[in-house]
Structures are given as C-alpha cells and as structure tokens.
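Supplementary Methods S3. Input chains for the assembly prediction are listed below.
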Amino acid sequence: MRIAASAIIITLLGLTGCQREKRDIRPSPADLAIYGDAAKESTLRPGGPVTPQPVVNNPYNASSYDISEGQRLFNWYNCSGCHANGGGGIGPPLIKKEWTYGGEPANIFDTIVKGRPNGMPSWGGRIPAYQIWQIVAYVRSMNGEQPTSATPTRADTIQTNPQNLVNRVSGQTK
Amino acid sequence: MKRAAVPAFALSVLYGCAWHQQSALNPGGPQAAKIDTLWWSFFWLLGVIFIIVMTVLLLTLTGRRANMEREALEVTHKASPQTESQTRRIVTGATIITILILFVLIVASVGTGKAIADLGFKKNPLTIQVTGNQWWWEIQYINGDASQTLVTANEMHIPVGRPVQILGQSQDVIHSFWVPNLHGKRDLIPSRTTNEWIEADQPGAYRGQCAEFCGLQHAHMALWVIAEPEDRFDAWMRAQLQPAASPSTQETIRGQQVFLNNACVFCHQIRGTTAGGQNAPDLTHFGSRRGIAANTVPNTKGNLAGWIVDPQSMKPGNHMATIAVNSTDLQPLVDYLESLK
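Predicted structure tokens for the full assembly:
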C-alpha cells in the first residue's frame, strides 16, 4: 500500500516536469518558414482600435528550454548590441510596461520580422521562424510574462523578472 | 580451450586500443611518455600486489592453519595470547608495507607531475588558444602579428619537435581538453585561462575528445591534432592564413550566394566574404578539414548535405540553426563549402 502510494506520488512529481522541459529540438518544416502567418501588428490605431484579431500564441510559451535558447540567440544575433540585456542602449529597453508596437507575442514577432523605423533592422528572411519565437519567449520572460516555473530564479545579467513584476502580471501570463 | 579464448580475446582487444590514435598508452610526445611510464609502473607494481593478496586470500580460505589453535577458537571464541601476538605482528607488518608502497606511489606520481611541468616554458613555443564551445573546439593560433593570427576549428596542426602552449578557455560551460597521446586532461573553465604544454616527437594524427560532461552532445565533441614536420606545418599555416578561395565555377558562385543570403552568416565566418559570424566554426578553409560537426562524421559531400538539411538528426540538441534550404540550392551550397580548401 505504502509502496503503491509513493509510486503514484513519484510519478505525479515526475509529470510536473514534463511541460517545463519539453524540448522541441527538431522543428517541423512549417516552423522554418521565414514569415509565419502569425505576424500581427498591434491593434492600436489612430481613431480607435480596428476589429480585434485572433490571439496568436507563441508555440514555445512557458518552455524553459526554448526560453534559454532564446536567451542564447539574443546574444548570438546581437540583439544585446542595441537592447543591452533588456535594459536598452541604442535601442529601447525591453524591460517595460508600455510597448510602442505592442507587447503581445505576435506583436514582438512582427517587430523582429519586419523591423521598425529608426533603427530596428528587419530579421525576416534571415532568422528561421522557430528561432524568432524562441527570442519572443525570452523577451517576454524579461517582463515576468512567463511562468516562474520556466524561468531561472537568478538571471545571468540584469535581474529581468523581479518578484514585484511577477506579482503584477501573475494570472495574466500568455 | 574455450576458457582460454575469452581472456585471450579481451587481451587482443586491449592490445588494439593501445595502438590506436586515441590512447594514453601510445605516447606521441615527452609529456605523454612520462605519463605512460608512470601508468605502467603503477600497473606492474599494483598487479603484483593484487596477485599476492589474492593468493594469500585463497590460501587462507582453503588451507588449514597448522599453527593456529582451531580447538580453542571454536570453543571459547578467544585466541590464545600466542595467536593474538602473531596476528598482531602480521597486521602491523602489512600496514607498514602498505603505507610504504602508497608513499612510493605518491612520490612517483608527484615526481612525474613535476617532471612534466618542467617540460613547459621552453623557447620558441607555438601558442594556441583552445576555446571549448557546446559542442565544438575553436582553435586560435596566437601571434603578436595580427596578420599571422589564425582561427580555425576542430582540427589543430602542430609542428613535430616544437613545444606548444595550449591556453584553454570556454565560451559556455566547463569542457576538458584531452588528447591522450600527447598529454593528460586540462579543464577549460569559463572566464579563466588554463595552461598546458604539449609536444609531439613523431608525426601522426592524434584524436582528442572533450573529457568533462558538457551537455547533450558531449560525446560528439572531438578534435584532431595533426603533428607534421616543420616545413609541412609552415605550408599548412601559409595556406590557412589566406582568405577563402573565390568561387570559380557557376555552381560554386551560386553556392556562395546561397550561403551569404541565408542565416549561415549570423554564426559562421568565411574570411574574404561578408560572412563574419563569430558564434560557430570558421569555415574559411572548411574543405581542408577531416570532419564536420566537431568530427562527428567524415567531411564528405553527402554528410555535409545531410548536416545542413537536418542538423538535429545527426547531432540532436546542437546549436546549428535548422534552416529551410531549397532543394535546388543545396547542391551548389555543398559544392561551394567543399571547394574551400
């Protein structure tokens, strides 16, 4: 009886790790597309919002592995050259509340693919779509918009998800 | 007869290992020769001790001790003072001998370490910086003259008879540089530089391997050290310092365009072109190297095509991006990369 109970508990404990460490190391050909149709601009328009568009979720949301891959790519592809480690420099900071071009995953994806005026280059046609989504997952984690179970408790550089930020957005992670 | 076959086979396998290109028992230089001597002296000394201990153990288990009073032991469970003092003498003697032998081994080991250390810091050394990456080796020939500084990957050429200083660094996690035929292991630790001196006294190709678990593809992180005579080394160095060969055929010209217009350039460098990425192996003279993917597979056109199209099947978890290459672009790309001799 006791053995059976502990076996069940151990299995359940093991299962809690599944989502966090799911590694999609071999992206499907569809994810290699240069432009996903997921790219969406912000609904913010002069004269009021246009009709709301369907929400596009990041396929790598809440995945610890993909967030860390995004962090690696953030440096490899020299995002940190302008955005530092999220604190901003030549480019705007990425640890913030108000996003010029929208802070939803699809908006950030679109910003990376198309580039933005005054400096942000267009990376579409260069970085494969699945890697852009990984970078999006990492950028969102800077603002605590990833579950704490998937993000490191201590950052390598700037502490990008301080506890108060996590509390502020808890319950609205996407 | 059959019984004898098993140890004989095991020995022949071991013998095969000893002469392989990746074995500490086949020293290719003075450092490894000292380690080899130490290894064999340990082997013979400890082998003899092992046989003695096992023989005594067997005798004790099977033989009758004539001078021990079995009767008294079995009845009172107490040894007589005579037996007691005899046993004490044996145990004391064995302990002293053990301590002495261990002391001799320590002296031999420390002495070898010191002798190896004294082999370093010679005149006219070649300095090579080895940087461990997940999961490949960056090889940089340090030279005061910047135009003579060479960056390559996963394959190191050294001149025979000239001391080589290895400066070990790491880009991500702890790796360990280990070419058994030349020297012992040296850890590569992030944000600090470690130091090791190697020297080859005979030409040959020696295989090295990461010796510190460093993640998913730790097992596929190999490098070749090619020791060759000074004149051949100089010729190799001159060739490697040149920028990449310009594509000459229609296919390779197209292949270069494919390379430069894809994500390849974010991570790979080809000197002489606009590709200047620093995150992955330098491909300037890729076609001259023995293996691809840190010597996971031999450098052939077929393997290269497979590696580019689906790197995750050959080496799951590696950091090479999976990019969508058009089928018509693949052959020119492979032809171009293999033309970079």
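Residues 2-169 of chain A form a domain with the Cytochrome Bc1 Complex; Chain D, domain 2 fold (CATH 1.10.760.10). The two ends of chain A are 41 Å apart (CA to CA).
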